[in-house]
Design brief:
The protein has about 425 residues and is of the alpha/beta class. It folds into two domains: about 5-200, P-loop containing nucleotide triphosphate hydrolases (Rossmann fold), CATH 3.40.50; about 210-390, P-loop containing nucleotide triphosphate hydrolases (Rossmann fold, 3-Layer(aba) Sandwich). It is about 45% helix and about 15% strand. It contains 17 helices and 13 strands. A seven-stranded parallel β-sheet has the order 3-4-2-5-6-1-7, sandwiched between helices. It has a six-stranded parallel β-sheet with strand order 8-13-12-9-11-10, sandwiched between helices. Helix 12 (about 315-320) links the parallel strand 12 (about 305) and strand 13 (about 330-335). Helix 2 (about 25-35) crosses helix 3 (about 50-60), helix 13 packs antiparallel against helix 14 (about 360-375) and helix 14 runs antiparallel to helix 15 (about 380-385). The protein is globular. The protein starts with a helix and ends with a helix.
């Protein structure tokens, strides 16, 4: 092992407590240490944060991390502090004393990582102080928020290209778990005007999640039955409107489930309380709109049920990715109305044909239509949209309906035996 590899391994073990890198992590860490600009698409649970946290310890200067969620930033800073890594966050939820202490640490060059929300970059004083800091790396987390094509677009993320220019095009890495072709192109255009970065796509497959879809005909009964068969497990039910969120949560409570609502129309304290209960317990069903989104990192979610399909294939992938983050078996089940989806497409197709967003929105909606109507493997269709080719998975409703579980296992075993015999001398 060379000195560089030994240093990486030693830092990974001693400072982060990991014996080995997850797939793809080491190559990205080495690329960061080599000074490359990167756009990295890694699957949920792939360990994106380590790809900038570890290099921050092995190189001089400050790493500025832009993140969309205050709670997520605070969690990461606390975890780094427990490892003895000097990190801080400056945000509106801090006390004035906390922000003052973080600013003093920044100005005295005692920080290795500083977490800020994109809105903070609208403050000229903050930008000026960062210009005088020794910033050596800009890490943009949840980078799909940059793109107007994306499902979680945040207008303040558009400040990042200008901010990067004020830092003299500092080395930058953008990380996300979800970015189709349209989103990747928009990220590159807005954030890397000085030249395209190296783009690394680590794959989208989450084989532990069983995919299934059903036509919606009696949604209340379908939701009651699905959740009831998984009683005592932690799950998320996504609904399209606040009204449906409240109604489904009430129905599930009447059937003996610990179901809580979550939507943007709720009082902040109640919404936060429900999220805290969900994070702390393993028997809660969170019934939510897409307001329950970024930053949900609970390992034991056993299922995600879509009472309504989202508006894009990216949103669908991002939302089902909240299940099974511990690697154990999980389920993603969706209810859909084909007539509603066809109507949505007709409305979109009738919009201004000169609109640059029309093609992307139609492509995403068509992918959802294809996924819901397909008689083939669900996972193949989903991964194909993101540019991946795969075999039939054996872990979706189409595969299991077509083969039967026992027959599928026999088929795979026969293929392995055949492959082994061909490789024998």
């Amino acid at each position: 092992m060379d000195d560089a590899a030994a240093s990486l391994s030693e830092t990974l073990t001693q400072r982060f407590g990991h014996a080995d890198f997850r797939p793809g992590q080491e190559a990205l860490v080495r690329a960061v240490l080599a000074g490359e600009n990167l756009l990295a698409v890694m699957p949920t649970g792939g360990g994106k944060s380590l790809c900038y946290q570890l290099p921050a310890l092995l190189r001089p200067g400050l790493t500025v991390v832009v993140s969309p969620l205050i709670a997520l930033m605070r969690d990461q800073v606390l975890a780094l502090a427990e490892r003895g890594i000097p990190a801080a966050t400056i945000n509106v939820s801090n006390s004035s004393e906390e922000n003052a202490a973080a600013m003093e640490a920044l100005e005295s060059n005692r920080l290795k990582l500083l977490y800020i929300a994109p809105e903070r970059l609208a403050n000229p004083a903050m930008v000026l102080r960062l210009q005088y800091a020794r910033v050596s790396l800009l890490a943009v987390d949840e980078a799909h928020c940059i793109s107007e094509w994306g499902h979680d677009f945040r207008p303040d993320y558009l400040l990042l290209g200008e901010f990067r220019g004020k830092l003299k095009q500092v080395q930058t890495i953008a990380l996300t778990a979800t970015a189709d072709r349209f989103t990747r192109e928009e990220i590159v255009r807005r954030l890397f005007p000085d030249g395209p970065p190296r783009i690394v796509v680590r794959g989208y497959d989450r084989p532990n999640i069983r995919l299934s879809m059903r036509s919606r005909h009696r949604s209340d009964r379908q939701i009651i039955d699905f959740v009831g068969e998984r009683r005592g497990n932690c799950g998320i039910v996504y609904a399209a409107t606040r009204r449906r969120t409240e109604r489904y949560a009430e129905i599930l409570r009447k059937h003996g489930h610990n179901a809580l609502p979550y939507h943007a129309g709720m009082v902040h304290m109640e919404r936060q309380s429900n999220q805290d209960i969900f994070q702390a317990r393993n028997d809660v069903v969170m019934v939510a709109t897409v307001a329950f989104g970024l930053g949900i990192d609970k390992p034991g979610v056993r299922y995600v049920l879509h009472a309504d399909l989202p508006t894009s294939i990216e949103s669908y992938y991002q939302e089902i990715g909240r299940a099974g983050r511990d690697g154990a078996p999980a389920e993603a089940h969706a209810l859909f109305e084909r007539q509603h989806l066809d109507g949505r497409r007709a409305e979109l197709a009738a919009t201004d044909k000169a609109s640059p967003q029309r093609e992307a929105h139609l492509a995403r909606l068509d992918a959802l239509l294809d996924l819901s109507a397909s008689r083939q493997c669900r996972r193949q269709g989903l991964l194909r949209y993101f540019g991946e080719i795969s075999e039939a998975c054996g872990n979706c409703d189409r595969c299991l309906e077509g083969f039967g579980l026992a027959r599928w296992r026999g088929f795979r075993a026969a293929r392995r035996r055949l492959a082994g015999s061909k490789e024998a001398p």
